[in-house]
Structures are given as structure tokens and as C-alpha cells.
Amino acid sequence: MEKFISFVVVLGVAAAVFLQCAAAQTVHVVGDSSGWVVPQGGAATYQTWADNNKFVVGDILTFNFATGEHDVVQVPKESFDSCTSANPIGNTITAGPANITLSDAGNHYYICAVGQHCQFGQKLAITVSGSPGAAAPSTPMQPDSSSSGVFASFLVSLLPIVAGFIF
């Protein structure tokens, strides 16, 4: 009976680790390897990037840029369309890289307010869904290569060793 209880405990720990990884947020690096820059392809560059990603409450946007060269300002749609930072939502982020946690569902708009960067296409519009189950992805999910995924894999790989000591 004692071995059975130990097995159930080990199984419970494995399930908890698995569920934590399944519920973890996704970190989206805006612009992928290009980062947050004035795009050569204009505004369509970031729109294409956004169209190829699925955003859910709790996810994190990472804007990679050099401090002093760019900034990130969340703005309402009207300010996004006219490239003005006169009505910011929150503070302007001037130090890069910048991480923004998506805390609510709906449309979110971000611009760079440095010079004419926004007019040249350095702006991002995304739609955030309310929960991971709200909309099924149209393409299969890629394996998580984030540090939390690696850590979870490490913990799961230790389970047979722990089980060997218990049994």
C-alpha cells in the first residue's frame, strides 16, 4: 500500500508539472529576429507578423530595440491610424528590450513615437482573445522551446529516477 501511495504522489507531481507547462503564457518577440525597428516593408511587415501569431490574455509581447533608438507606446485606434502618441494608454517605454503582458482581451495598438518611425510603418495592431480555449489555432502548435518548457522536460526526466529510489 505504501508503494501505491508513493506512486500516486509521483504521478501527481508529474501531472502538476505538465499542467503548468500547458497553461504557461507564450512570449511573442515582435518582428521575430528583426525586432522592433522601422521595417523596410512598411506597416505591412508588422501586420503580416501579427496575422501569423495567436495572442491570448497572459501572453507577453517582447519588443527588442536599442534604448534611445526606439520606444513603445500603447495608443487607441485613432492615434494608431494617425501615428500620434498624444493619447497614450499607460507610460511610454523607452528602454529596450520591453516586455508587455497582455492583460485584457480586445484590440491593442502599439507605435514607435520616435521621429517619423510610425509613419514609416513601425506600428503594431493585434487582437487578443480572452482565454487559450477561446479560439483554436489554425495550424498545429510548435513545441515550446522556452526556458519553462526546458525546465519542465528536465523535471519530467527526473521522475523515473525518483520513482526508482521510492520503489
TrEMBL record:
Molecular function as annotated in GO: electron transfer activity; metal ion binding
Cellular component aspect of the GO annotation: plasma membrane
TM annotation in the entry: 148-166
Record domain Phytocyanin: where: 26-130
Pfam family, one: Cu_bind_like
Keyword set, alphabetical order: Copper, Disulfide bond, Glycoprotein, Membrane, Metal-binding, Signal, Transmembrane, Transmembrane helix
Signal peptide positions on this chain: 1-24
InterPro entries: BlueCu_1_BS, Cupredoxin, Phytocyanin-like, Phytocyanin_dom
Full protein name: Phytocyanin domain-containing protein
Upper classification of the organism: Eukaryota, Viridiplantae, Streptophyta, Embryophyta, Tracheophyta
